[in-house]
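Bug #77: duplicate submission created two jobs. Keeping one. Sequence:
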Amino acid sequence: MSATLERPTAAIATARRVPPSKDSRKLIRSQVRAGWMLLAPALLHSAIFLVIPVAFAVALSFTDYSFGDSWAWVGFENYSELFGDANFRAAFVNTLLYAVVVVPVSIVISLVIALGLNQKIRGLGFFRTAFYVPTVTATVAIATIWLWIYNPGSGLANGFLSLFGFAPSQWLSNPDTALPSLMAVGIWQGLGTKIIIYLAALQSVSRDLIESASLDGANRWQRFLNITWPALGPVQFFVLVTTIVGTFQVFDLVYVMTDGGPGTETMVLVLDIYTNAFQDLRLGFASAETVIMMILIAIFIGLGRLLQKADVND
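Kept job's structure:
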């Protein structure tokens, strides 16, 4: 009996893999060539507008280049000077604070609103459009509107607070409220894109699973935690990455509303890079600051990836 069982096993183990025919190999090569041709535009775009600029920025960060004809290799001098610069330290801290608040708050609010808009309610199309309008509106226009809202004399914010007996506030001139005021605008402006992404993901969640869980007695929180939340895993990471990158690249909002003031209370990294590069003409110094910002973004994305893996494993 054992010999009979061993023979087919040995035959399977020693079976030779049939090599593909000549026509099959030609088909595979043609498919590979077609794939590279389709990828070529995206790869060329990435090389021209991403890889090459990043390589140049890293190289320039080790020089004293300042839009002139002559430049010298200075090694890590820009980096050592950078961490001794008061404006950079302020921009570094403010950008971290801005990201730590805006990223999680905007994601949570977007998910909650998306869950609400995913229900069968009246006026659903209007609400979806209303939430998305700030995303497609020019940031300069949004900043102008919020400058009026935060106006100390005739602004909507102080007018609303006065109804409840609160004293008027110097929203953008007060060091204690300037950065939080910008955070509120940044959170509000970025909701639309995340809501649309979450809505698309929520509509792909299996209704059968949700109905089965309801029949088994699961409440809304249990259905969300055990069915909806795991289904949003890949989307969560995409939203997290895009939010982190967008938050660290905040510029026009700050430039129009405060220009980094009062003092350096709202100075952020991109605004400081712009000032060093195009006002002070210190391109090497600004490139070193850009490299630091890229490293910081990579660290935040890496932490987000670790959190996502931990959530999946749990």
